[in-house]
Amino acid sequence: MRTPSWHRLVCAFAASSLIAAAAHAQEDPGKLFTYFQELYNRHDKNLSEFLIGELSQYVARFPEGEKAPEAQYLLAKVYQEKSDKHKALAAFLKVMSLYPNADRKQEAANEARLIITADNVYKEKRAALLATLETPPAGESPADLYFHYLNRLMALGNNEVANLILDDARKFLIQFAEDTRQDSVLLAIAEVYGRKGDKRETEASYLRLEYCFPESPLLPYARYSRGVVFSKELGDHKRAIEVLGTVVAEHPQSEYAATAQFKIAEIKREKLKDYAGAVADYRKLIESKADSTKAVEALWAIAEIDADNLKDYNGAIQAYNEIVEKYQGDKRAASAMEKAGDIYKDKLADYGKAAEQYAKIAEVFPDYEKAPDLLLKAGSVCEEKLKDYRRAAGYYRIIFEKFPNHKSAGEAKKRIEKAQKKSGE
Q1: pLDDT tens-digit profile of 14-32?
Q2: Overall pTM > 0.90
Q3: What CA–CA distance (Å, rounded) separates 325 from 340?
Q4: What is the DSSP string of 24-80?
Q5: Which residues contact 423 (CB under 8 A, 6 or more apart)?
Q6: CB atoms within 10 A of CB 385
Q7: Domains of the chain by residue range
Q8: Matching CATH topology for 180-271 and 351-425?
Q9: Is the CB of residue 322 less than 8 Å from the CB of residue 299?
Q10: Residues 80 and 111: beta-carbon distance below 8 Å
C-alpha cells in the first residue's frame, strides 16, 4: 500500500515543481521592479531588510537588465532611509561606477558627494574621496567598470562596508576570471581582512596571491605584509623571519627588500632578544646600499643595542660616528654626535673625549639648535670632572663669540669670569 501512495506524492511534488518553474520563468523583470518600487513607496522601515535582500537578488539576477541601475539606486535609498549611510554610499558608488550611462548616475554621484561631505568619518580623506568621484575608469569594459568600483570602495577605508567589498571582490574573481587584475583584487581582499582584524584570513589571503600569481609584481609587497602579520598579529616570529627572508632573497631589487631586512633585524631585537643576530642583520641592510634613511635607522639601532644590551660602548660610539661620517646631511647626525658624547661621559668616564665631542658639534653642525647648550655642557664637564678651568673658559668663549644672541650667551659670560678666577688668571 505504501508504494502507490509514495509514488503519487512524488508525482504531485514533481508536477508542482514544474508549475513553479514555469511561473518563475514567466516573471517579468519590469513588473518585478514596479513591485519593489511600490514597496519602497510605503517607506515602511519594517520592510527595509526584506527590500534590501530582494533588491540585491534582483540586481544579481538581472545585472544587464534595463531596470538594474534603478534597482541599485533604490537599494541605496533603502539603506539611506535605514540610516545605514556607509552602505548607502557604497550602493550609490555602484550605480555611478557600473552604470555610467544610467539616468540615475548623476543623482547617485550627488548623493555620494553629500554623504562624503557631511560625515566626519571621511573628514581626513574627504578631498581624495571627492576626487575619486570625478576620476573616470581605465576603460569601458564591464571588468574596467567593476574594477573602478572596487577601487572606490577600498578608498573609503571603512569597516562598515568591509563585507560588501569582500563579496563584490569575490564576484569580480568569478565573473572576470581571465582579467589581468585578479592579483590586485586578491590583494584588496587581504587588505580588507586586515582592516577587520581577521588575522588568519589576512595571512591566508596574502598566501593565496603567492600561490596563484607567482609572477605578480605585487608579490614582494604581499610577502612582506604576510611576514608582518605573522610577527605582529600572530606572534609567530620565526615564521615571519622566514617569509621576510624570501623578500630579501628573491626580490632584491624590490622596494620592499630593504624594509624586509630591517624588519627581520627588528624582530630579532625586540621579539627574540637575539641582539647579536639583530646587529648582523642591520649590518646586512647597510651593506646592501639601502637608502640613507634606512641606513641611518639601522646604524642608530646598532648603537642602541651595543650601548643598552651588549654593553659594547666603543661599538656604540663607532656606530654613532659612522652616521656622522657617512650621512652628515641626515637630521639625526648631530644627535648621533651628542649620543657619542654621552657615552664617553656616562659610561666610559672619558671626560676629555666627552667635552671634545660636545664642542665639536658646534663646529660641524653650527645650526643645530642645541649647539650652544652643548658647548656649555662641554665647559661644565671640564670644570667639574677635569678641573681644567682654562679649557672650560675656552668652550664658554666660543658660545659668546659664535652665538652672541643665544640665551646661553649670558650664562657663558658669567662662567668665563668664574673659570678665570678658579684658574688664577
Answers
A1: 555 544 444 445 679 999 9
A2: no
A3: 13
A4: HHT--HHHHHHHHHHHHHTT-GGGHHHHHHHHHHHHHH-TTSTTHHHHHHHHHHHHH
A5: 389, 390, 393
A6: 15
A7: 31-160, 180-271, 291-349, 351-425
A8: yes
A9: yes
A10: yes
Q: Which amino acid does the sequence have at 194?
A: G
- CATH fold of 351-425 reads 1.25.40
Amino acid, single-letter form, for residue 46: N
The cell for 242 is 622566514
pLDDT tens digits for range 285-302: 999 987 889 999 999 999
Q: Which CATH class name applies to 31-160? A: mainly alpha
Amino acid at 112: A
Q: In terms of pLDDT, which residue wins out, 110 or 23?
A: 110
Q: Are 350 and 323 in contact (CB under 8 A)?
A: no
Whether the CB-CB separation of 72 and 99 falls below 8 Å is answered with yes
Residue where the block lists cell 647579536: 276
Residue 80 identity = Q
User: How many C-alpha atoms does 146 have within 13 Å on its Cβ side?
Assistant: 21
Q: Of 1.10.150.120, 3.20.20.70, 1.20.1250.20, 1.25.40.10, which CATH number belongs to 180-271?
A: 1.25.40.10
Per-residue pLDDT, 425: 60
In the numeric block, which cell numbers belong to residue 16? 508542482
DSSP 3-state of 1: coil
